[in-house]
Amino acid sequence: MMIVMPVRPPSTAGPRLHTATVAVGLLFALEACSADALSASRDRQPDASFDASHGPLKDAEIEPPSDASEPPGPELPRDAGNNLCVPRCEGTCGGAPDGCGGECQQPCEAGSLCANQRCAECSEDSDCSGAERCDPITSRCEACDGDSCWRSALYPADWTPGSTDAEGRFLHDFSYAGYAGGLREIFEPSTAHFDITAYGSGPDWTSAIQLAIDAAISAGGGVVDLPAGEYRVDGRLEVNGSNVLLKGAGQDVTRVYFSSAAGMSDHAHLEFGRMPIFGAPIALSADGLSREFSVDIEDAGDLSEGDEVAVGFVISAAFRAEHGMESYWGFAAEEWRPIFWRTVMSIHPLGAGGYRVTFDVPLRYPVRVRDSASLRRIEGTVREVGVEALTLSNAVELSQAQSENRVSLISFRGVKDGWVRRLRTYSSPLSSPPTEAQHLQSHGISVVGSRQITVEDIALGPAQNRGSGGNGYLVEISRSNEVLVQRATLRGGRHNFSFNWDFGNSGIVIRDSSSEGSRCDGAWVACRSEFHHSLAMAVLIENSELSDGWVGGNRRAESSGAGHTVTESVYWRLYGSGDLYSWQYGHGYLIGNDLEVQFVELADTSDALWELEWYPFWALNSNGHTSLHTEPEDFLEGSARRSALVPASLYADQLLRRQTPR
Length: 662
What we know:
Elements: E1 3-6, E2 17-18, H1 19-29, E3 132-134, E4 141-143, E5 193-195, H2 206-218, E6 222-226, E7 229-233, E8 237-239, E9 244-248, E10 254-258, E11 268-272, E12 277-283, E13 294-297, E14 308-314, H3 317-322, E15 336-349, E16 355-359, E17 374-379, E18 382-393, H4 398-402, E19 408-413, E20 415-425, E21 445-448, E22 451-460, E23 473-478, E24 484-491, E25 495-499, E26 509-511, E27 514-516, E28 529-531, E29 536-537, E30 540-542, E31 545-546, E32 549-552, H5 558-561, E33 566-567, E34 570-572, E35 579-582, E36 589-591, E37 597-599, H6 607-610, E38 635-637, H7 650-659
Parallel strand pairs: 5-6, 6-9, 7-10, 8-11, 9-18, 10-18, 11-19, 18-20, 19-21, 20-22, 21-23, 22-24, 23-25, 24-26, 24-27, 25-28, 26-30, 27-31, 28-32, 29-33, 30-34, 32-35, 34-36, 35-37, 36-38
Antiparallel strand pairs: 1-2, 1-37, 3-4, 12-17, 13-16, 14-15, 14-17, 15-16
């Protein structure tokens, strides 16, 4: 039977509980995510700094933005004789800034370390204190809180992206996630600025903002500035060109609220890009291997270095049978699907004929000739676009929001290198009922068919529509690669984080975030963040607080035959009062988590029983996932030892290793 693994053990030892015995109690004992948990007291209402005209305010009427630049520091010391900067290193240790753009060089005293200033380099754990260990890449002592440090058996000090244990288990290299693949910081795409107030005025600011966006696109890029104030937008905004940033004067200083609801199903109020266009297939001549950077093709045609391509395959009968999905995944049966979006780095002829195409990011799963695997050039993409430093809402009257489905606040479609940062939602003047302080009609940020998107420093929710039909996903990721979500606070959605429709999610990282109050309106089960659809591959969720929980497994017929929803993904150092269901196809990994309950065991149930259309509720978790055809059991390690697991961030450590080759 499935086993309930309590991560916080009771004070007295006892037997492990069988889910068949306790699941009924567990399911009905799950705390309902009531409206009381989404108290309006936690939401800041519009304050006196916004006037009734909903337009820009004068500088004297507002407080400085919270993310304004710091004032310049004191002038550097200068030598009176030659006006050269004089280094100051008194009282510091090696690695400290010397005040002149360099670093201090003097060593620490024997036997001592100066971790804050990166002083003496360690070579082994014994060089550090008992609550620290020596990182072999950085040669720095890393602190552990509480118990002595430990490393995962799958992530030793000498780990490489090719490391595999005797059972065939391995951790993907997740370091490619985010804007520019983690290789450079987000920057403003242009020095040209387009102030929306120069293009019109309210009370409906749709035209003024769209005209400023269009002007920036026509100029080859630019920053669309939204000055301090509150702006009503009755239409939709579209950014269909590259190198455009929508930038407010700061959170709680610039506010925008959208009023439209009718006809908004499957649309976003602020939409970047359009779905990509795929060119003619270039067939693979040999199977492409997981974690490899290249594939072989017979004919390169006019394929060139720098081209953006999709590596995909047909969801064939053989592929479905291999995964035990003969009765599911029918929505994509015998159709080609783009799985990995890659940049061509090189094309080299092979001695025996054909060509080897090398990519910037490794494959995350096998791509087989058997399944008509091919490359297809990606066209029509939008690049270097983002939105930041403002507060948004699209909440309306409640019945209006619930009459539409899958309405997003912001969406990225066919975008490479995009971002959302320093953004929060609020209860707009149109939100009803105001006592619930609802912020969103349905979805928050949707990333669809896109690559290398960073979403950071955001706070989203609650949603008005949390009903069936795919509503209430606060961060939704679909058919996208290498997305990075960090420092995100989500509350009050149906599924706060959701990996949604169709194949193609891979290489995604969610870190340093929190999820609470997920709530399924109209359903008897509790809701959580989840892997919702079609075999997401190589996802890392780390260092995040789950007050509701996370689910990933075989959903069988749910959501139009979602079937297996996740494989080869890692939960790393999660914590909170929520629970975690992980029945991944093939190998899955739960490492160093401190949650109430973790479900990892396989169901000992005959296939005959599972052929029933309505399977017994006691054999499921609360979101309809099962462990059928998910062998082997997911890897569970270091439960309740979160604070002592190193490295603290798997993503950051892998990024450093990639940037600092040994």
